[in-house]
UniProtKB/TrEMBL annotation, chain A:
UniProt record similarity statement: Belongs to the binding-protein-dependent transport system permease family.
Record domain ABC transmembrane type-1: where: 96-300
Record-annotated membrane-spanning stretches: 9-30, 102-124, 136-158, 178-197, 239-264, 284-307
Topology within the bilayer: Multi-pass membrane protein
A single GO cellular-component term on record: plasma membrane
Protein's organism: Faunimonas pinastri
Lineage, opening ranks: Bacteria, Pseudomonadati, Pseudomonadota, Alphaproteobacteria, Hyphomicrobiales
Listed GO MF terms: dipeptide transmembrane transporter activity
Keywords tagged on the record: Cell membrane, Membrane, Transmembrane, Transmembrane helix, Transport
Broad class of where this protein is predominantly found: membrane
Subcellular location: Cell membrane
Name used for this protein in its record: Peptide/nickel transport system permease protein
TrEMBL record, chain B:
Xref: InterPro entries: AAA+_ATPase, ABC_Ni/Peptide_Import, ABC_transporter-like_ATP-bd, ABC_transporter-like_CS, Oligopep_ABC_C, P-loop_NTPase
PROSITE patterns in the cross-refs: ABC_TRANSPORTER_1 (PS00211), ABC_TRANSPORTER_2 (PS50893)
Lineage: Bacteria, Pseudomonadati, Pseudomonadota, Alphaproteobacteria, Hyphomicrobiales
Gene Ontology CC: one annotated term: plasma membrane
Keyword flag Cell membrane: yes
Name the record gives this protein: Peptide/nickel transport system ATP-binding protein/peptide/nickel transport system ATP-binding protein/oligopeptide transport system ATP-binding protein/dipeptide transport system ATP-binding protein
One GO process term, biological-process aspect: transmembrane transport
Species of origin: Faunimonas pinastri
The ABC transporter domain, residue ranges: 9-259
Record-level Gene Ontology MF annotations: ATP binding; ATP hydrolysis activity
Domain of life per record: Bacteria
Family membership: Belongs to the ABC transporter superfamily.
Membrane topology, record value: Peripheral membrane protein
Length: 316, 322
């Protein structure tokens, strides 16, 4: 198991290095110089060159990449934005927790509800529970998140003001209001993945329930709840992989949800950075998302190795 | 064992079918047999003869759609059709257990052998984890698995086919059943391992006084460990007798042809014997004797149903045997 973990960890580190290189090259290869963005399009060439020299932008690409990696790996420092002059670490420290909380709440909501729905659907196949949950999943998959968000704001924040229409109320103003302000955005973010994952859980569990070893479990007289646990551990293998990817994708969807609900999370920094052509900030934010995605995948690999012992011995 | 002791398992007029558009399509048409402690009965027949469905109905695990249309099954003191689902669960494993053809797919790949055994034990007996683990170790030892304590931590995929089938047998025996149903237990195994598993079943029958119902299409295996044989064709038992008598004086033409299909070392080289034709499809039985279209001895009388289906040893459902 330790060998398996180190093997996967090694792969993840390799992936981080490659992604960081691609990310750096792509954002640095954009022909427009940051100097022109700061100084204006009609600034004299001398000034531009002086700006580039001051900020080290005239050095070779690989040298700058090495410096970026060095500072990031050894000091955890993303550096300062040439465009805004702000430290990127401060910016991330301010916005990441907001997005992280929203995504985690939405993720937990999606995972818990989808496993419950998918399991009920599979166990009571073709019952009214199954039909209801399948109708729900079709709606959940096909209705766009931003539209759900707008409709929910209209009904549950404006017409019937139960929840605030936007923003996240800080915890300092009370835990209750804070949680209330999270409900609508987390629901909108989670509902799509609830639908996707509950469909997967259902089909995977139905397949497993037809396996010979479930018949054996019944034939040995295990109680229903234990038979279900025997089935679920096997059925979750394909679901876990998709679940971990969903966690990563949710950060992408969070940008839309944060915009609709006017939440000051990572989306604000990223969208601002893109519109200001502040590529150093874009690079930092995307790199953080990448790390989260890889960590989620690593967690999924470990969880799968626990669920499916055959995976552990496959590795040489 | 005395012949007067009441049988542990008694099946009478068991009928099984699949629901169809125009009413139920029967697949098993009234099967009767009984089985006592320490006795081994073989249900023999081709695929589709209804032998596996008959076996599965005994532990109320008929596959999707199939259901019991009638008849009675008595297990010990219990009449199966009068029991609640919870009582049936207690009978499964506690009174009757079953092992299946492919031991790899019959064991849960995600749990250790020890976990599966202790869960089975604790589903029937209120034991602590430690006590159940001790019992699991004894079971693995009983079925002849070397270093049983270490094996408790193994997963099924880490074992050989023969060892897996031994584990499956240990799992079946976990809660001390009195009847073991073995559905083609050696079909998926190597020939050398087949003999070991059959020897194990014979030993367990003796040591534990188990009744064994062996489902097989392999008459050679049957001859090794069984006392009695019931031959099934198209959802009916067509002949039943002791193993010796079946081999010496088969009554039903179908039994005779099945025996002829076993290749012998002293046979002259040449094509192997087969039974021409195929078993009839369910719901499309020929009129009269179901074996008539394939029977070399068929004559006019066979257009009517055979006189009687065997209730006792030595009888056969055939006009010629009457």
């Amino acid at each position: 198991m330790l060998g398996f973990f180190l093997h996967r960890l090694g792969f993840s580190i390799l992936a981080v290095l490659m992604i960081s290189l691609i990310l750096f090259v792509l954002t640095a290869a954009i022909p427009e110089s940051p100097a022109r963005i700061v100084l204006g399009a009609d600034a004299p060439e001398v000034q531009v060159q002086q700006f580039e020299h001051e900020h080290g932008l005239d050095r070779p690409l690989l040298v700058r990449y090495g410096e970026w990696v060095d500072r990031l790996a050894l000091h955890g420092d993303f550096g300062t934005s040439v465009v805004t002059g702000l430290g990127m670490n401060e910016q991330i420290a301010e916005t990441l927790p907001v997005t992280l909380e929203l995504v985690i709440v939405a993720f937990v909501f999606a995972v818990v509800l989808s496993i419950a729905l998918g399991t009920a659907s599979a166990v009571f196949e073709n019952s009214w529970i199954d039909h209801a949950s399948r109708i729900f999943t079709v709606i959940g998959v096909s209705v766009p998140g931003f539209w759900t968000a707008l409709i929910l704001i209209l009904f549950f924040a404006i017409r019937i003001p139960i929840f605030p229409p936007g923003g996240i109320t800080p915890v300092s103003e009370g835990l209750g209001p804070h949680i209330m302000s999270l409900v609508l955005p987390a629901f909108c973010l989670g509902i799509f993945y609830t639908a996707v994952l509950s469909r997967m859980t259902r089909s995977s569990l139905i397949e497993v329930l037809g396996q010979d070893y479930i018949r054996t479990a019944r034939a040995t007289g295990l109680p229903r709840s234990l038979v279900l646990r025997y089935a679920l551990k096997n059925a979750m293998v394909p679901v876990v992989t998709v679940t971990s990817m969903s966690f990563g994708y949710m950060f992408g969807w969070a940008l839309i949800i944060e915009t609709v609900f006017n939440i000051a999370g990572m989306s604000g920094s990223l969208l601002n950075a893109i519109s200001q052509r502040d590529y150093a900030t874009v690079r930092a934010v995307v790199f953080v998302f990448t790390l989260i995605f890889l960590l989620a995948n690593l967690a999924a690999d470990l969880l799968n190795a626990w669920l499916n012992p055959r995976l552990r011995t496959v590795q040489a | 064992m005395s012949a007067a002791a009441p049988a542990f398992l008694e099946v009478s007029d068991l009928r099984i079918g699949f629901p169809g558009r125009a009413g139920d399509v029967p697949v098993v048409h009234g099967v009767d047999f009984a089985l006592s402690a320490g006795e081994t009965l073989a249900l023999v027949g081709e695929s589709g003869s209804g032998k596996s469905l008959t076996a599965l109905s005994l532990i109320d695990l008929l596959p999707g759609g199939a259901r019991r249309l009638g008849g009675r099954i008595r297990i010990g003191e219990n009449q199966l059709d009068t029991l609640s689902s919870n009582a049936i669960r207690k009978i499964r494993g506690g009174e009757i257990a079953m092992i299946f053809q492919d031991p790899l797919s019959a064991l849960n790949p995600a749990f250790t052998v020890g976990r599966q055994l202790t869960d089975a034990i604790r589903s029937h007996h209120p034991l602590s984890r430690g006590a159940a683990a001790k019992r699991a170790e004894e079971l693995l030892d009983l079925v002849g698995i070397p270093s049983p304590k270490a094996r408790l931590h193994s997963f099924p995929h880490e074992m050989s086919g023969g060892q897996r089938q031994r584990v499956a047998i240990a799992l079946a025996l976990a809660s001390g059943p009195k009847l073991l149903i073995a559905d083609e237990p050696t079909t998926a195994l190597d020939v050398t391992v087949q003999a070991q598993i059959m020897a194990l079943l014979a030993r367990l029958r003796q040591e534990l006084g188990l009744a064994i119902l062996l489902i097989s299409h392999n008459l050679d295996l049957v001859a090794e460990i069984c006392h009695r044989v019931a031959v099934m064709y198209a959802g009916r038992i067509v002949e039943t007798n002791t193993v010796e008598e079946i081999f010496r004086r088969p009554q039903h033409p179908y039994t005779r042809m099945l025996l002829d299909c076993i290749p012998r070392l002293d046979d002259r080289p040449g094509p192997l014997a087969t039974i021409p034709g195929e078993p009839p499809l369910f719901g499309k039985l020929p009129s009269g004797c179901p074996f008539r279209p394939r029977c070399p001895a068929a004559h006019e009388r066979c257009l009517a149903m055979p006189p009687a289906f065997p209730q006792e040893a030595g009888q056969a459902a055939c006009w010629l045997a009457a």
